[in-house]
Prior knowledge:
CATH topology of chain B: Rossmann fold
Radius of gyration of chain A: 27 Å
Radius of gyration of chain B: 22 Å
Number of strands of chain B: 12
Largest sheet of chain B: 6 strands, parallel
Distance between the termini of chain B: 59 Å
Strand content of chain B: 15-25%
Largest interface: A-B, 113 and 94 residues
Number of strands of chain A: 13
Shape of chain B: globular
Number of helices of chain A: 28
Shape of chain A: elongated
CATH architecture of the domain at 10-299 in chain A: 3-Layer(aba) Sandwich
Number of domains of chain B: 1
Structural class of chain A: alpha/beta
CATH architecture of chain B: 3-Layer(aba) Sandwich
Low-confidence stretches of chain B: 1-11
CATH superfamily of chain B: NagB/RpiA/CoA transferase-like
Low-confidence stretches of chain A: 476-586
Structural class of chain B: alpha/beta
Oligomer: heterodimer
Amino acid sequence: MSLKTDNREFGVRTEDGIGDAFMRGAVGSAQDSLKTRRLTAATTLGDWERWRELGQQIRQHTLENLDFYLGQMADNVERRGGHVFFARTKEEASQYIRQVVERKNARKIVKSKSMVTEEIEMNHVLAQIGCEIIETDLGEYILQEDDWDPPSHIVAPALHKNRNQIKDVFAKKLRYEGDETPEHLARFARKVLREKFLEAEVGITGCNFAVANLGAINLVTNEGNGDLVAALPKTQIAVMGMERIVPTLEEMEVLDNLLCRSAVGQKLTSYITVMGPRQAGEVDGPEEFHLVIVDNGRSDILAGEFREALQCIRCGACLNVCPVYRHIGGHAYGSIYPGPIGAVITPLLGGYDDYKELPYASSLCGACTDVCPVKIPLHEQLILHRQNIVSQGRTGAADRIQMKAAGKFLSSPGLFGSTLRLAYSMTKLMSKHGRIVRGPGPIEGWIGIRDMPQPVKKRDGFRAWYTQREQPTSHSAGTQVPGSSGEAGAMTSIDHLDQDGAVRQTDPRVYDSYPSGTRTPGSLGQAGAAASKDRLGQPGAVQPSDPGMPTSQPTDPHVSASRPSPGRDVSVEEASSRIGKGGDNA
Amino acid sequence: MTTAFSHSDPSGSNAQDRSNRETFLNHIASSLGRPRKMDGVQRPAWKHTVHLDTLADRNQDELIEILKEQCTFIHTQVIESTPERLQRTLDDLIASFGGGPVMRSGDSRFAEYGLSFPGDSVWSPEASREDNVRLAEAANVALVFADYALAESGTVVLESRPDQGRALHFLPAHYIAVIQRDSIVPRSTQAMAAYHRRHGAGEALGSCINMISGPSNSADIEMQLVVGVHGPLQATYVLI
């Protein structure tokens, strides 16, 4: 497998995902479960925002000094008797691994889960020289036996399959005769794979973090397969993306804590191991240890405006809260890295030619940014990608014409006004019951997915209403909104509504665990939450029940304009869960 | 295949490996827009101490309660015993798992506490790698002493040594770790800091440090938890 998992068009892939009812049900319930577990783990720990800031600081410090720490790591691995290879490209990485395997005359290889080995197409290269490569992570093993079906989630790769499909794969490929109970399936895999562990000549692992001052690698698993891969075969090859490094065990510990809680809601996973070459006098562990440090485009990311994406610790929390991932599933991204982080890094590793659609596979709700344990501004990076894609002229001709036209109309008050006046009659033929139901060329893509409200007649419009409205009474002077700098008003108005009419509901529990300063107390905690609940399904309506809002007083447009950036100020987890529940994932 | 690569064939010379490495690291420095940093990088003062503060104020009795409670969430049985009763406790436990074969580490504490298990095998540097692995694979029960236990996460921490192999923790079906009460620390922070200090003092650490929190498990099939995948099916801690 390579970075690219599907050669079909993005549109075809998403259609596939949306049409797969089982997959969507599985993704939805997995998201709900993982999201809740993460939130519980973070709340139980307490001070979560400080933990995130610490994680962010550790990652940033390491990236800023990456040359130093990688040099230190290499020295220490060699000091402990291991070999280090620095690979600029994926070809260099997989060829080096091939040479090590060839030199050992090895045919039987066991592997623990590693995304970067997929990225460098290692399995393919090793299969070409006649090796049997066995994925030993249960999820990855299932995918391998199903003719290398691509993974659909960073942490739970076989999320898209149900137990019956898995039973059928095992029955067909491995002559499994049991039922579809997960425990029976897992025990069967344990038995088959135990043999593979014992006879393997080479073990290949990924690396959650390299510990620079120790010259060791850190693996985080629940199944114990990574430890067997590293303990039993006489040769171990560990492959790491060059950014996955920490200064010492002390920083590793902090990041492991963030990783386990964010990925699966565990305090620590069952097996967290710091490992390296077998030391003098020891009996097992690798007699020969190779660490392959892979660049493959990462140094370009380091040099550019997307550096923060390299802070990623691959927990998958952003996938678990993403409303787009929920609906299209992991395969639609066409990359081994799906979800919000995948939409950021896949175009960086694979180029815009193949992946320019991915940054648009986002509602920009910011839920991903909110849960990221190392504070990568994911949705802002998606916007940055979009800016690059537009400025490089990579958008379609129709888009360009449309945007040019919109620019003309929007920059001229006269043109804008007259267009508004004509909007109703211009859209009359396309509309039915106040909704635009079909449209010409460029807007068809939008209309095909959802109805758009038809513009109203001029006399029914907001401006007409605004000039003719009843004048405010003495206590409400237009721009005056009680609360700190008017944010309460802003937050309870249009920002709480997204395209599905769902409300970003504030969950006070979340805010209890955040230090003051990151949110504006009072703007959300009580007033916002209470008010926003009333808004479901009433887009644009101003609720007289807003505690901070004078009755019969519309939200002042200036107040709305000064709102904080979307997504950062509400419990977006709740928001995306509501979006999902409002959908059709039952 | 690039020139840099062919220079760094695994069997190639150190000088050529060195040159490949220098090119790689110099390129990173240029990506960072500054000259190469060869030394002098210090960890900054971290802006928060949340990892140090969490559970730091708990006394030993409270930590034991936290450990016991956490173990109920991670499918791990905790049995309280004493040095005097330890042999009996372990014998009963082994019997409850259907008896041996038992394989234990060569930890000196087994002798200190006067423990013996007729017919057991011991992980030993005197025996070959193959023999040790074969005995561990055949064992029904693995028996070890923890270096540290982490209250918050219900974890035992162990370092590999000549008399305590890495596969011993993973191959047998049942895993029993004996925890001395005074080895219980609040969380992973203290254990990792201790290894960090030992490393800093020039002590050679084993090839492997394991933090083990309960039995192996997976939720890869429909997110349904299955306990017992590649490693042990069951884990038990005995507190003394």
